[in-house]
Each structure stands twice: as structure tokens, then as C-alpha cells.
């Protein structure tokens, strides 16, 4: 198996060249894999199991929502986009990561490196945008239920979904252009995947434009968090003055969104603080995996959280399993 993976890496993930030194500016070395030692096989099988579970639970929930007409509501449509976004992000990371765990040469071509950065960043920003839309959905459903159908009409849902994808694509494309044009004086990335900030630090020239644009992006993406915080504050204020049963119902529908949001933000902040602010790290596999937590854990836990907490999805899952059992009996 290692032979085939090595062949795949040389043929597809590395640029053609007669000698490695002739393309030192065209490849990147992922040095963080050195911290894994002789545990690579263990991490490979854990990653493979995790990735297969991610595919299974996300695709299963998407198919369930697609087939069940009772779930063709704005909240579940947004949820489908969230799950698809997580499939994109986890796939862009896991495949290369598992290949590197089975070979000894942990390199990636410049083209594939920037492709991975683009997909991972699209996943990150789109996830934030979709979570913002979902928070607004819950806010309108609880704060102004009589206007819910009007506000979240089919046309408006399509506009929100398109905006949640197009805006990140445009913003990340501009950032990628600023990074691709940089001449580099090194090719070692202290990560297990390609990271834009690590590449910017390798530049031989002034990177002020990249730093300014990165700061603008961080400030821009703080707006959704403010909006989410405002939405849930209003939701809590409305629920405070309602009956106990209504409070429980609102809490039940909002809880998965809150868990998803808190977990995603906390794991993402760790990566931003560690890489962007140059915090000194303890060199071990624990910090290496902590830096990829936002790529591995949310795509696996989120569909389970929504499936277990949202009553409509839970009912449909129980019904399908019970019907399947009767057919087998």
C-alpha cells in the first residue's frame, strides 16, 4: 500500500522535475509529521475510521432531509448546506493527511497546496456564514413567527444560500491571489496541512498587503459573530417571558446551533491564535491534532448533535429504523 501511495504522491502531488532541488520553490515540506514518530499507522486507521464516519453520518442526514418532505423547511435546508460544507472541508484535509501518514516523504506541490488552502478556507468561512443564517432563522422563528414564511420564502432562502457561498469564494480568492504572487525563500510548513499564514511567513518580500487584507478579513468575519450573539440574546429575552413548555421547545431547537457554534469557534480560535499571533507551541502530536480540530471534529459531531436533539429528525430516524426492523423480521 505504501508503494502505491508513494507513486501517487510523486505523480500527482509533486510537479515534474529531474531533480528535487530544481523545484524547491515548487514544493512544500510538511514538517509537523515528524512529531508523530512511530504512531503513524495508529493515526492513519483512526483518521480513516473518522473520515468514513463523517461521510456516512453527513450523507445519511442529507439524504434523509432530501427524501422526507416534512423536513423541507428553511432550517433543514440550511442544515443540508452546512453538512455539505463540512464534507468539502474534511475531504480537502483527510485525503492528503492519510496519504502522508503512510509515506515517509511529506511534501505537496505548490498547486495542490494552494488548492487545499482554498478549500479549507472556503469551508471555514462558509460554515460561519451558514451558522449566521441559521441563527437568523431561529431568531425570526421565535421572535416573529407570524412573519417567518414571508421572510424565509423560497426566493429569499436561495439568495441567502448563494450569498453564504459566493461571499467566501470571492474573499478567499482575493487572499489567494495576494499569496500566490509572493516569491518564497523557503519551503517548510510547520503544519500537517497547507496554511496560508505559514506560506506568507516564507516570503522574501514585504507582505504588508497580505497582512492588511488578512486583518480586514478577520474584522469582516467578526460581524457574523456579533450578529449571532445579538440573535441569541434576543431569543433568550423572548423565551424568558414565555411559558415553560415554549421555553423547552425553543431551547430544544436552538441547542444544536449553540453547541455547533461554540465548538467550531473555540477550535477555530485555537488555530488562529497559534498560527497568526506566533504563540510558542509545545512540539508534540497533541498540539498538532489540536490545530486541526476544526477540520475533524465538527464534521463528525454536528450531524450527530442535530440528529439527536432536533425532534423532527430524531422521529424520522426512529421511524425509518423501526420500519426497517419490521421488514427484516
From TrEMBL:
One of its GO terms (cellular component) is plasma membrane. It is a multi-pass membrane protein. GO terms for molecular function: G protein-coupled receptor activity; odorant binding; olfactory receptor activity. The keyword Cell membrane applies. SUPFAM superfamilies: Family A G protein-coupled receptor-like. Pfam families: 7tm_4 (PF13853). The chain crosses the membrane at residues 43-64, 76-95, 107-133, 160-180, 212-233, 254-273, 288-309. Residues 1-19 form the signal peptide. InterPro entries: GPCR1_Superfamily_Member, GPCR_Rhodpsn, GPCR_Rhodpsn_7TM, Olfact_rcpt. It comes from the Eukaryota. The keyword Glycoprotein applies. Residues 57-306 form the G-protein coupled receptors family 1 profile domain. Keywords: Cell membrane, Disulfide bond, G-protein coupled receptor, Glycoprotein, Membrane, Olfaction, Receptor, Sensory transduction, Signal, Transducer, Transmembrane, Transmembrane helix. It is found in: Cell membrane. This is G-protein coupled receptors family 1 profile domain-containing protein. It comes from Erpetoichthys calabaricus.
Amino acid at each position: 500500500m505504501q508503494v502505491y501511495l508513494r507513486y501517487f504522491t510523486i505523480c500527482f502531488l509533486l510537479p515534474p522535475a529531474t531533480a528535487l532541488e530544481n523545484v524547491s520553490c515548487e514544493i512544500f515540506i510538511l514538517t509537523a509529521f515528524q512529531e508523530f514518530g512511530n504512531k503513524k499507522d495508529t493515526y492513519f486507521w483512526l483518521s480513516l475510521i473518522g473520515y468514513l464516519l463523517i461521510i456516512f453520518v453527513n450523507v445519511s442526514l442529507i439524504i434523509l432531509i432530501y427524501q422526507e418532505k416534512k423536513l423541507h423547511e428553511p432550517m433543514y435546508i440550511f442544515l443540508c448546506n452546512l453538512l455539505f460544507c463540512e464534507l468539502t472541508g474534511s475531504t480537502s484535509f483527510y485525503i492528503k493527511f492519510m496519504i502522508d501518514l503512510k509515506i515517509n516523504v511529506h511534501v505537496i506541490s505548490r498547486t495542490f497546496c494552494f488548492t487545499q488552502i482554498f478549500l479549507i478556507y472556503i469551508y471555514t468561512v462558509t460554515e460561519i456564514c451558514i451558522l449566521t443564517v441559521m441563527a437568523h432563522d431561529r431568531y425570526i422563528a421565535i421572535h416573529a413567527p407570524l412573519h417567518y414564511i414571508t421572510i424565509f420564502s423560497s426566493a429569499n432562502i436561495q439568495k441567502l444560500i448563494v450569498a453564504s457561498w459566493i461571499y467566501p469564494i470571492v474573499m478567499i480568492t482575493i487572499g489567494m491571489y495576494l499569496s500566490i504572487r509572493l516569491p518564497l525563500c523557503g519551503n517548510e510548513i510547520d503544519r500537517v496541512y497547507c496554511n496560508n499564514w505559514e506560506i506568507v511567513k516564507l516570503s522574501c518580500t514585504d507582505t504588508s498587503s497580505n497582512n492588511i487584507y488578512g486583518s480586514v478579513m478577520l474584522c469582516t468575519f467578526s460581524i457574523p459573530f456579533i450578529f449571532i450573539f445579538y440573535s441569541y440574546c434576543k431569543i433568550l429575552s423572548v423565551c424568558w417571558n414565555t411559558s415553560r413548555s415554549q421555553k423547552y421547545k425553543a431551547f430544544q431547537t436552538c441547542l444544536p446551533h449553540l453547541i455547533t457554534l461554540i465548538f467550531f469557534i473555540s477550535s477555530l480560535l485555537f488555530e488562529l491564535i497559534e498560527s497568526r499571533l506566533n504563540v510558542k507551541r509545545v512540539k508534540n502530536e497533541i498540539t498538532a491534532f489540536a490545530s486541526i480540530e476544526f477540520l475533524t471534529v465538527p464534521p463528525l459531531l454536528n450531524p450527530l448533535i442535530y440528529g439527536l436533539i432536533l425532534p423532527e429528525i430524531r422521529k424520522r430516524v426512529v421511524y425509518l429504523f423501526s420500519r426497517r426492523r419490521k421488514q427484516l423480521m
